Amino acid sequence: MPRKRGKRWTASGYDRGVKRKVHLGTFDTRREAAEREAEHALSTRPVGRQTIESFAGRWVRDYPRPRLSSNTSNAERIKPLMRDLGGARMTELSRPRTRARAMKHRWALPAARAMYADAMNDGLVDVNPFANLRLPGSDGRKRIVALTEAELQGLADQALKAWPDDGWAWSYRAMVLFAGYVGLRPGELFALPRANVAGDLCLIERALESKSGTIGATKNGRARTVTVPPVARDAIADLPRNASGLLFESPRGQMWRQPSHHHRWKVVRSMAGRPALDFYELRHCAATMLLERGMTPWDVAIQLGHQDGGRLITSLYGHPSEVAARERLLAAWDESRSLPDGIGSGARRERTP
């Protein structure tokens, strides 16, 4: 909308390239300024000729993610959309039609949403029809009950019981504790050089690609420095130096791979009475323990390598106990009230009075 400045009128418009409003000029009359704005809006309007098939065909190539596995996954996930809607233009999708396809191909939705977001940045569409669909979904990891510190310790100790005569069992025990207290992704843990751990800090700059088996960047393509709690430091203190330079090695003296690691993990979790426990849940354990120690979601996001200011920590990764929360709330108003042992150091189960 034109704005008056002194005796003249200024025109402005949105520039998709820089993603902000830009100055289009100063005019003697309001009508001239309005015409310039209309002309700009018309010239930058998405042409709408690109089909879903043609854009999806170049999407992974033109908008690559840092990790090869992410690009491979996106290419596979977008196939159902191309098969059902490939001939349609990018601007032709209505919300009802989009919702129907999303309900049919739920696993393809994240890739479709990301693809349209890139198309918006390219000026091909004005809206993302796959955004904010509010589909009913499973709770997924929201229902995870994070391990307590005692349970985590007990879980790690199962490695010593499973392989009492194997020296590498101590390394596996240390890896479980390191994962549970530091909160690394499995691929980051497998590819971690020992030299990157210096006292209470650890540099995370690479990860094992689960699908390709190669070493690449972290999930978001950025290195980060995380903290190493005393329990995790103690667990790795006496581990022998590996010739590979890795902090953790498989029994064959090689980098852990997902299949070989899962074979051992099934034994450990079954002996601990948690046969369905995913190794990735140890990351949730780390997040929950930090939250219950009073860290903010933003603090925990820094540790886990998220760049959303703590949104995922609040909605997905943190599972603090209601019992612990009530104890802290009561203690906040009663100076004579002391917290029970461990109430602020790990997730605790709800208890029936």
Written overview of the protein:
This protein has 353 residues and is mostly helical. The chain contains 15 helices and eight strands. It has three domains: 3-43, no CATH class; 52-137; 144-353, hpI Integrase, Chain A. Helix 7 (149-162) packs antiparallel against helix 8 and helix 12 runs antiparallel to helix 13. The N and C termini lie far apart (63 Å).
Briefly, what is this?
The protein is built from 15 helices and eight strands.
Number of helices: 15
Distance between the termini: 63 Å
Mean pLDDT: 84
Arrangement of strands in the largest sheet: 1-2-3
Shape category? elongated
Instruction: Report the β-strand fraction as a percent range.
Output: 5-15%
Name given to the CATH architecture of the largest domain: Orthogonal Bundle
Q: What is the subunit organization of this protein?
A: single chain
Largest sheet: 3 strands, antiparallel
Radius of gyration, in angstroms, nearest whole number: 26 Å
User: What sequence of helices (H) and strands (E) makes up the elements?
Assistant: EEEHHHHHHHHHEEEEEHHHHHH
Number of domains: 3
Helix content: 40-55%
State the CATH class of the largest domain.
Mainly Alpha
CATH topological fold name of the largest domain: hpI Integrase, Chain A
Sheet/helix structural class = mainly alpha
Count of DSSP strands: 8
- CATH-level-4 superfamily name of the largest domain: Intergrase catalytic core
Instruction: Catalogue the unreliable spans.
Output: 342-353
